[in-house]
Design a protein that fits this description.
CATH architecture: 2-Layer Sandwich
Number of helices: 4
Strand order of the largest sheet: 1-2-5-3-4
Shape: elongated
């Protein structure tokens, strides 16, 4: 099997995922998964598509990750891995879609508007 690549996005994070056959190593920006995401919750999020299909130790995954914070980055990697697994085997798509890993989360930060301190917040109104 040659390398299969896919892109995952979430908020401001973009993950380019490269999947090859291997032993289950996950490398993010040339660092091990455990070093890049010390939180076990974020590691769990990244591994969710692999655990759903029981292929956690079948593929080596290399990820180039830019932008966003740690939550957005972990969810971008999850989407990228899910998309790559579907490219490898299209029969896995219904299981991943049922778990919600194939949908790109469209929620992003709303822009700050002029004349107010935030996206929705207004300065205090003074009648007099």
């Amino acid at each position: 099997m040659e390398t299969v690549n896919a892109i995952g996005r979430r908020k401001a994070a973009v993950a380019r995922v490269f999947v090859t056959e291997g032993t289950g190593k996950i490398i993010i920006n040339k660092r091990e998964l455990e070093n890049y995401f010390p939180s076990s919750i974020l590691q769990f999020i990244v591994k969710q598509p692999l655990n759903t299909l029981d292929v956690a130790d079948k593929y080596d995954i290399r990820v180039n990750l830019v932008g966003g914070g740690y939550t957005g980055q972990s969810e971008a990697v999850r989407l990228g891995i899910a998309r790559a697994l579907v490219k490898i085997n299209a029969d896995d798509k219904p299981a991943l879609r049922a778990a919600g890993f194939m949908t790109r989360d469209p929620r992003v930060v709303e822009r700050q508007k002029p004349g107010q301190p935030g996206a929705r917040k207004k300065f205090q109104f003074s009648k007099r």
